[in-house]
Amino acid sequence: MRKHIVAGNWKMNKTFSEGIDLINKIINKSEPLQNVQLIIAPPFILTSEAARLAMNKNIDLAGQNCANHDEGAYTGEISARMLKSSGATYVILGHSERRAYYHETDEIINTKIKLCLENSLTPIVCCGEVLEEREANKHFEVVAKQIKGMFQDISSEAFKNIVIAYEPVWAIGTGKTASPEQAQEMHLFIRETIKNIYGSDLSNNVSILYGGSCKPSNAKELFANPDVDGGLIGGASLNADDFIAIANSF
Ligand code: 13P
Questions:
Q1: 79 alpha carbon to ligand 1 midpoint, in Å?
Q2: This model's pTM is above 0.90
Q3: 240-244, long-range: CB within 8 Å, 24+ apart, which pairs?
C-alpha cells in the first residue's frame, strides 16, 4: 500500500502570528484523519514552532526549499541540516516557481536531493510541463527529462525515501486543474519512467502527488485515480477547512 499524502505548500504567505493561527486550526481539525499523512510546508520562520505544536499529531513539517550547499558563506540560504534541526522531516524540491524565478536546474535539484537524503529529510520532488510544452505535445518528454536529471546517481536504497509531485505549471494558481484523465495518464507515465530506472518494486511504492488548483470540489475525482496518491496543495492549503476537506477526499 502506497502512502496517501496531502501536503500544503503555503509559499510566501502568512506572518508568524497568522501562521500559528492557521497551524492551530489545522491541528484541531486533523484529529479524525487516519489514512492520510498530512504535511505542511510553511515559510521557514514558522517551521520550528509549527513542529513543536504538531508534535505527536498526524502532521509532519516540510521546508519549501533548501540550499544546494552543505554550509558556509551563502547569505540568505537555509541548509538541509538546519531544516532538519528545526523539526522538518520533508522538503519540497524543484518547484516550478523555483525553476522559473530562481533559475533552478535539474542538476541543482539533484544536489539538493542528495543533501536532503544525507540529512534524513524526505524530498518531495516536483516535475511538470509549461503550457507551451503541453500544447506542443512535449509534456511526456519534458517530464521524463526532468525525472532522469533530478535522480541522476541517486541509488535505489536512497530512492526509497522519495516522494514525487506532478505539478503541470499551467494548472498552478490558475484555477485550471488537470482533468482526472490527464493527471492519471501523467502519473502512470511517471511511474513507468521510475520503473525503467529503479524497477517495479520501487515504482509501485513511490507516492506520486498531484498539484495545481487542487481544491475540495475536485480532489475526490483526482484522488480516485489508481496512480494519484495525494496532493500538493497551494492556495487551498491556506484555509484550514479546505485543506482538511481535501485530505478527507480519499
Ligand atoms: P495551487 O494549488 O495554488 O494551484 O498551487 C499548487 C502548487 O504550486 C503547490 O506546490
A1: 24
A2: yes
A3: 240/22, 240/25, 240/26, 240/28, 240/29, 241/29, 242/215, 242/216, 243/6, 243/8, 243/26, 244/26, 244/29, 244/30, 244/33
